[in-house]
Design brief:
The protein is of the alpha+beta class. The chain is 70% helix and 14% strand. Helix 1 crosses helix 2. The protein is elongated, with a radius of gyration of 23 Å. It starts with a strand and ends with a helix. This is Cell division protein ZapA.
């Protein structure tokens, strides 16, 4: 337990005490700041006052971003595989001659 760090993260006017690995602190603090900024944006843009609705909208936005990144990476991987296959075919044809 000596290598654990106790921090408090504030999200939507609530404080959450956490016990974490020190290397996680920066990521958690950045994530909390992003959530707070998104909450503010949703409250201003859509006149949403219920924190539950705002947090649900934040969760949906973050999940959609994560899913889209996965989709984009999959497309990039398929493209890279196609290019590698073409390169391999070209090399094989030159080696066969």
């Amino acid at each position: 337990m000596a290598d654990k760090l106790k921090i408090k993260i504030s999200i939507a006017d609530r404080v959450y005490p956490l016990t974490i690995q020190p290397k996680q602190e920066e990521g958690l603090r950045k994530a909390a700041k992003k959530i707070e900024a998104m909450i503010k944006q949703f409250e201003q843009s859509y006149a949403v006052r219920d924190k539950q609705d705002v947090l649900a909208m934040c969760a949906l936005q973050f999940a959609a971003q994560t899913e889209q990144q996965g989709i984009d990476k999959s497309a990039e991987m398929l493209d890279a595989e196609d290019k590698l296959k073409s390169l391999n075919d070209l090399l094989q044809s030159h080696l066969a001659n």
